[in-house]
Amino acid sequence: MTDPRVRRVQPSDVDDVVRLVHALADYERAPQECHLTSEQLHTALFGEAPAVFGHVAVVDGAVVGYCLWFLSFSTWRGVHGIYMEDLYVDPAQRGSGLGKAMMVALARECVREGYQRLEWSVLKWNTPAIEFYKSIGAAPMDEWEMHRLTDAALTEFAGGA
């Protein structure tokens, strides 16, 4: 049974989700790196060609958590999966099962659509999140290391440097 506190994100939720994204950036000790605006998120979620999807957790009519995700593709398995970009629950609501409920919603989306992976990244210092993920049966991908090009490095590389 679906947790009634969790539903797909709606246009009226965008401002609340942006607020929570900025709260996540604070929690992850990088508020200066978060520049997301409501207009950007609205376009990503509800524009002409949405490429980002989401769920929210609602308690007493207030959005207190969110997860944003997009489709990935496994060349080895030959099918799509879900990559969860963010999962965040307001500190006052942690321990209430909302994080797990949002992840169950994503797992059900995978099963319903025939997707074979649900993946995400977690900061190595975020012990509470790591313990939670282990408790639901998730396995760390220790043999993989994430790499990223952004800002000046991305621009320079795109210029053929």
Observed structural traits:
GNAT_dom; Aminopeptidase; alpha+beta; GNAT family N-acetyltransferase; acyltransferase activity; single chain; 161 residues; 23% strand; five-stranded mixed beta sheet; acyltransferase
CATH class: Alpha Beta
Which value, in Å, is the CA radius of gyration?
A: 16 Å
Distance between the termini: 53 Å
Q: What would CATH call the homologous superfamily?
A: Gcn5-related N-acetyltransferase (GNAT)
Sheet with the most strands? Answer: 5 strands, mixed
Helical content band: 25-40%
Regions with pLDDT < 50 over 5+ consecutive residues? Answer: none
Q: What is the count of helical runs?
A: 5
Whole-number mean pLDDT: 95
Enzyme class: transferase
Keywords: Acyltransferase, Transferase
Organism: Allokutzneria oryzae
Protein name: GNAT family N-acetyltransferase
Protein model, in words:
- By secondary structure, the chain is of the alpha+beta class.
- It contains five helices and five strands.
- A five-stranded mixed beta sheet has the order 1-2-3-4-5.
- It has a single domain, classed as Aminopeptidase, CATH 3.40.630.30.
- 35% of the residues lie in helices and 23% in strands.
- A hairpin with a 4-residue loop joins strand 3 and strand 4.
- The longest helix is centred in the middle third of the chain and has 16 residues.
Give the topology, please.
Blueprint: E1 6-8, H1 14-27, H2 38-46, E2 53-59, E3 62-74, E4 79-89, H3 98-113, E5 118-120, H4 127-135, H5 151-158
Parallel strand pairs: 4-5
Antiparallel strand pairs: 1-2, 2-3, 3-4
EC number: 2.3.-.-
InterPro entries: Acyl_CoA_acyltransferase, Diverse_Substrate_AcTransf, GNAT_dom
Protein name: GNAT family N-acetyltransferase
